[in-house]
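As a warm-up, study this chain.
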Amino acid sequence: MVRQGAGSCFSGDGQVITPMATDGHSCNSLILRSKGRVLAGGYVFEGSNQIMGLAAYRENGLPDTSISGGGKQILDFGGADNVSALALQQDGRILVAGAAGTKKFALVRLKSDGTVNSTFGTSGVASAPLNGHGGYAYDLVVQSTGRIVVVGNGHDGSQDFAAARFLP
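Now compare it with the structure written out below.
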């Protein structure tokens, strides 16, 4: 993250680097939380295992320890996990669109501290089967009713637009 004119924030030079794993990682999504806090999400490789990775920062670029106690959270659902998009519910819970385990068109809900909200979906993960054709989730929005719309692509011989709506 680079912030122009950061002054003493973000390591004094406007940037902060957060090592997530030794085997590679990528950040794909970013949201602003309350009090200027930032949450970034993507994937992390541990060996050949691709898992979800989240990094949280306070407004000054220091780790936001409200996430997992150290500002980083790694989530392994047993597949090629990935964070494509992040959103917040009104109560501060974190929504993650992406891939989780064998669910490629997946929605994961986390508590405000970054831990999985196991009462959502199946062990914290809801997915859209897209008529059994699979697909990938890329973005999401929370409607004013609290319902969650996830978009991406569906596979039925070609790649088509796909959208699924989930209850809060």
